[in-house]
TrEMBL record:
Protein name in UniProt: Xaa-Pro dipeptidase
Keyword annotations from UniProtKB, A to Z: Dipeptidase, Hydrolase, Manganese, Protease
Organism: Jeotgalibaca dankookensis
Necessary cofactors: Mn(2+)
Assigned protein family: Belongs to the peptidase M24B family.
Record domain Peptidase M24: where: 146-345
Key word Ubl conjugation present: no
Domain Creatinase N-terminal: 6-138
Name of a matching Pfam family: Peptidase_M24
GO molecular function list: proline dipeptidase activity
Recorded name of the encoding gene: pepQ
Amino acid sequence: MSEQMEQIIERMKSDGIDIAFFNDPQTVEYLVGFSSEPHERILALILFQDAPPILFTPALDQEDAKASVDGIDVYSYLDTENPWQSIKNLIVDKSLPTTNWAIEKEQLTVAKREALQSQFPNSQFEKDYSKLLHTIRMQKTSAELEKMKKAGFWADEAIKIGARALKVGITESEVVAEIEYQLKKRGVDQMSFSTMVLFGENAASPHGVPGPNKLKEDQFVLFDLGVIYEGYASDTTRTLFFGDQPTSEQKDVYQTVLNAHDTAMDQAKINMTASELDTIARRIINQKGYGPYFNHRLGHGIGQSVHEFPSIMEGNQLPLIDSMCFSIEPGIYIPGNIGVRIEDCGYLDDSGFHSFTFFPTTIDAYQNFIKESK
Ligand SMILES: [Mn+2]
């Protein structure tokens, strides 16, 4: 049984929880190593204080599940069976207490909870273990960090593919298509979110949408993208200057974001709070008068999902700890005019913050890259 599962069972004992029911596919994958998206079917990991865990899957997943887990009983149901009735029978067979349940309130729909309640009318489903899972997942194992480095490698490759594709007149959508096509040909078939490529003023919205805009000389091109590799996400943003004559405003905005990004990367350390790290970057942007245009938190945790705990934001007094993974992504967005963001995700250890991505960040990075590729 994994160390993380043992940690949860210890917690069940101290909380007086008889049964913990996890139905988030990512939780299941995290705890037992079996990955599947059940759609409307039921996939669940059921933990007890003093009995072996049950992995409950749709019948079509049973063989894969058995092959990928160790020391866990796998049971399945057919589409023609009532999964909740099957779960009840499995649990009742164990003759263990069933009064107090912990569930993932962020994942278990009301309908599913009612289905469980109908099978166990005298049980309580009040305890929420969503936060507990977030907390455990914040601290990555060395095996997880290795996967995240690989996911980072492919994010850097994606930026390079995108940079090579740039030319006057190409559209944002065409650059997105090129990136995803080239990655798929190389065996990377899942992005961690919709790839973003935004030209010039279209990048002035932090959640802009790529479309038919055509690239012109001396515009910024904002790439925000990542891939899923072996179940782990990457996420990086580069704002490349396409041309060689940035205006003084373009230079000033870019250098301010870069300075905030580099300073936060350099100064991030264990035991600092998430809020303190946000402030380090935000102060630099405020001092240059762009504060109102940095309208989001400095960063977010990352792992199996592209956004998870911790949130690197003002007011979050959570201390940063060893092996936590998160983004550092300051930005300045002046509506209708200019948008610049620079983002790297990485992990913390005793010697500081270590990025998973390495594409250069200076304003002439695009020019240098093109020269070197020739
Ligand atoms: Mn991000």
